[in-house]
Amino acid sequence: MKKIISIVLVLAAVVLFSCTATGKKYDIHITSPVQSDSLYLSRYYLGNVRVIDSTRLVKGEAHFKGDLKQGIYILAFPDGNYVDLLVGDKKNIKVKLDTANMPYNVKFEKGSEQEAFYNYSMEYFEMKRRIREIGGMAMADTTAEAHKRFNDEVKEIIDRQKLKVDSLKKKFPNKMISVFLEGLNMPEPDTLKLPEGCTNPDSVQRAYYNSFYHEHFLDNIDLGDERVYYTPYIGQRLELYLSRVLEQRYDTIVPHAVKMLEKSAASDSANRVMASYLLYYTTRFDIPGFFEERKIMGLDNLMVELNDRYYSTPKAAGVDSAVIKKVANKAKQIRNCMIGDTARNIPVATLDGEYHKLYDFSGTDYTIFVLYEPDCDHCKVRLPKVAEFCKIPPLQGRVKGVALCMTDDKEKMERFISERNTANLINVWDPERISEYWNKYDTSETPMIVVIDKDHRIVARNIEPEQLFQWITLDDLLKQ
Fold first, then answer.
1. 176-184 helix and 113-140 helix, angle to the nearest 10 degrees
2. Ramachandran quadrant class, 227 (left: phi over 0; alpha: psi -120 to 50; beta: rest)
3. How would you class 199 by CB atoms within 10 Å of its CB: exposed for 0-12, middle for 13-18, buried for 19 or more?
């Protein structure tokens, strides 16, 4: 079996560590009375945290100097005490901190963006603490009077917080803190007015909200502003959108992912981050045993879009050439056999050497087209399972199996058919090599199982024989 997954191992690192492009020169000056002589600077990037620098406190002072991008960072001591630090467009940042009672015992310059962010953060966590406290009180006192009192207090807290956010955005327009705060603001749909006489209000409301969040979930996050990728929440928000908010089908996820890439194109740096994120999101499902329970058929169609819209264009200048090559190779493998596309009607020969078109062997409802190698150990195990599947009485006629042996050695092919009991499949080959099956179908792994429906549309590919019933049943249900 030829298994090409090395791209995943490369890309897993790309999305986490691709933001090493030069930023602006900064000097973060820390004063502290603590005894520890070590201090670390970390950064948020797409929901991950990575230590990027360390220094020593000498006589109560330390400096972090170098290139930084605007975003949210972390100052941390070895004992686990830390505080979030906003890095905006001001190049000289002063911080006074003490591990005693952190993160409360921290001071920034008066009136600075850093101080505003710090104060907001502390007020925000206090707000959440109080709301949780009120929730506990409401469980203890369920009277109508108490319920109203608790609701009124929560509303007052939230309204006060909204006014604070509006005030900060006016005071620091287009600054890092405004980018951070705007991204926290979740879009809310208008109240739905149900049509008169509606008999299924729950279904209508569910469809309305689903449709709204499909299109607007990321509205308040400027994907074209690189600064947003250096916030604590962005990774979780993107993951939630792609893996939970959107319907988990390739024909829903792929178009919306393309929109995300297009929105990020407002700046080259943001476009690079989004392209690498989507690339990792797509390929991580190919890591054996990783996210296997949520593998989505057809998600790799996105690889072709990413290649054509970014990695094969001048926009990818500066991206590791090994990554570009791997993306191009992967896109080439699947370009002509993507889920949802029409299967290529290639010429194939029967055992007597007579050529026919693939469609000539179609089942009434489905065709299971398998490309295999007679010396492949995985093929020796899986082809017989496909043959047995096609013998299931309710499927006979509805489903036909076509097995293309990728060899010009007829004797070897016939021996495989005899030894592996696959004679009930329609066994074909291409001794004249006129079909170019290696370009028309993905042969990066063998056996490659492709499920084709009666309209010659590819509905599944690269699956195990045990999954055939699942995918055919699923496709039947979706077409009802």
1. 20
2. alpha
3. exposed
According to DSSP, the residues that pair with 161 across neighbouring strands are none
**Rounded CA separation 332/316 (Å):** 18
In one-letter notation, the amino acid at residue 298 is G
Cα separation, 180 vs 170, in Å, equals 14
pLDDT per residue, tens digit, the chain (480 aa), is 444 334 444 444 444 444 444 567 899 999 988 766 789 999 999 989 999 999 998 888 999 999 999 999 999 988 888 999 999 999 999 999 877 777 888 999 999 999 999 999 999 888 888 888 888 887 887 888 878 888 888 888 888 989 999 999 999 999 999 999 999 999 999 988 888 888 888 888 999 999 999 999 999 999 999 999 999 999 999 999 999 999 999 999 999 999 999 999 999 999 999 999 999 998 875 544 444 444 688 999 999 999 999 999 999 998 999 999 999 999 999 999 999 999 999 999 999 999 999 999 999 999 999 999 999 999 999 999 999 999 988 888 889 999 999 999 999 999 999 999 999 999 999 999 999 999 999 999 999 999 999 999 999 999 999 989 888 876 665 565
The pair of structure tokens assigned to 416 is 């495989």
Residues 87, 68 contacting (CB under 8 angstroms): yes
Q: Which residues of 328-351 are buried (b: 16+ CB within 10 A; e: fewer)?
A: eebbebbbbbbbeeebbebbbbee
